[in-house]
Specification:
It contains 6 helices and 15 strands. It is an alpha+beta fold. It has one domain: Acetoacetate decarboxylase-like (Beta Barrel), CATH 2.40.400. Strand 4 and strand 5 form a beta hairpin. The longest helix is centred in the C-terminal third of the chain and has 10 residues. It starts with 7 loop residues before the first helix and ends in a 12-residue tail after the last helix.
Length: 284
């Protein structure tokens, strides 16, 4: 008899911690490349808690599982400017919706985020919903190539991405279901924010993200290896179909503070009308 796949809880508690983010964080992104795969909605459901719903791409019956590789500099915690803290990052995410303030918010749900910064790994590993861990990285960044290689302590989480910058354009790849780069950007990137879920407390976290006007293109020539994507595909029997790879550069963003809240109450807001939406802060 085949062994049952681990539950979403056991996998994600292995991958990292989810908690409050008590301050806003400002950052500047040098480059970000997001590789996107279509996966049937019912298969993505296996990876998500009950109160997080995979978002459907148009009427395809598919959702989106993505691996993001980027490097950015954190410039501010709360109102306080900081000496620049640079980090290389790889992040595995699912496009989803969550209940918040009486409506469904479009967000990405993070399964795992690796950072090269010990400061961000420590703070983000305890005060965010990104399931962040500190890992070793190598980066190549020149006029022709952008590459990140992550060597994580957990052998489930290593990976590498290499992209040819000469292949970046607005031309649609044959693989995508989107009609143009604007449609792809709107679905994958132009979201209300990010989200996470604490299984122990049965609480959600939703974080508004302030986006700038950005210039996104397709990247046509790249390679990606990911131990986590391979594990998810094999363990949960995911039918992953490559859709597209999106490229952006020189982006300012603000990641607003977030507090864990009761998804039962948030779901009730959707059915019973508006209710008070003060965040529940532990120990208050």
């Amino acid at each position: 008899m085949a062994e049952a796949a681990p539950t979403a809880r056991s996998l994600q508690e292995r991958l990292g911690r989810v908690y409050h983010q008590p301050v806003d964080v400002g950052s500047w992104t040098n480059k970000r490349i997001t590789v996107n795969y279509r996966v049937p909605l019912e298969q993505l459901d296996q990876l998500l808690p009950w109160c997080v719903t995979p978002e459907e791409i148009e009427d395809t019956g598919d959702g989106m599982l993505s691996m993001c590789a980027c490097d950015f500099t954190v410039t501010r915690f709360g109102p306080v400017p900081l000496p620049p803290v640079h980090t290389n990052e790889m992040l595995c995410r699912i496009s989803a919706t969550v209940p918040k303030d009486g409506e469904q918010k479009r967000a990405y749900y993070t399964l795992r985020s690796d950072t090269s910064s010990k400061v961000l790994g420590l703070l983000g590993g305890h005060f965010s919903h990104f399931r962040k861990a500190t890992s070793s990285f190598d980066r190549v960044d020149n006029d022709e190539t952008y590459a990140l290689e992550c060597e994580a302590e957990d052998d489930l989480c290593g990976g590498a991405l290499t992209a040819s910058l000469n292949s970046v354009s607005d031309e649609c790849p044959d693989s995508t279901v989107f009609d143009n780069v604007t449609e792809a950007t709107d679905f994958v990137l132009e979201l209300d924010g990010s989200c996470g879920y604490n299984f122990t407390k049965d609480k959600l976290s939703f974080q508004n993200i302030e986006y700038p006007e950005w210039d996104v293109s397709f990247c046509h020539d790249f390679s990606l290896s990911s131990s986590l994507l391979d594990y998810l595909a094999e363990t949960y029997d995911l039918d992953m179909t490559f859709d597209c790879t999106l490229y952006m550069a020189d982006v300012d963003q603000a990641w607003n503070r977030s507090w864990l809240y009761d998804p039962h109450e948030a779901t009730g807001e959707l059915t019973d009308g508006p209710q008070p939406t003060e965040p529940v802060i532990e120990g208050k």
